[in-house]
Amino acid sequence: MPNERPDGTAGTTRPHQDHGIRWRLVRGEQSALAELYDGHASVVRGLAHRFLDDEDAADRVVAEVFAEVWATPGAYEPERGSLRSWLTELTRRRALRHLDESSLGPRARARLEERIRAASAAARADHMVTAMPGSLRTVLELAYVGRRDYREAAAELGVSEDETRRRLRLGLQLLSAAAQNGSEKAS
User: Fold this and answer.
1) Please, are residues 60 and 54 in contact by the beta-carbon 8 Å criterion?
2) Per the database record, which ranges form the RNA polymerase sigma-70 region domain (predicted)?
3) Residue 183 confidence (pLDDT) above 70
């Protein structure tokens, strides 16, 4: 089950939870698959729908992704990233496979592949932010979502302006490093 963030949106599982679910899946515990599905099916379906823009195809991708998880739970390597990241990658691959199997023309396929790349990048960015320590995530959300400058964010958080700037800088550095690592893995 995903963690609840202070704003009520779903977060990501913690690494020890990812390890626990993986081992339960490897042991064949159906309850682990149900827990994983309950916590992540909406993300997988949302990505599949954004990739394919087709309800039925998105539903097939969701079924295929979770069937693959059940069939090959050992394929998930926690040291390489979170379960959510792995599910995102499985979804991307399945969506691309659906595109390859479809009868789209080259231009339509190129447009859809570009949408898939953009949606994957957006999902990766969302995951990077949700995986950050709360103090960094909160200041980034205040600055970029809440449109507050560092002084306003500092006042709202009850910390010094220097601390707010430090958190912003560190958060942005983490995002930059994670984005760079993600683009290197994708190529």
Assistant:
1) no
2) 36-99
3) no
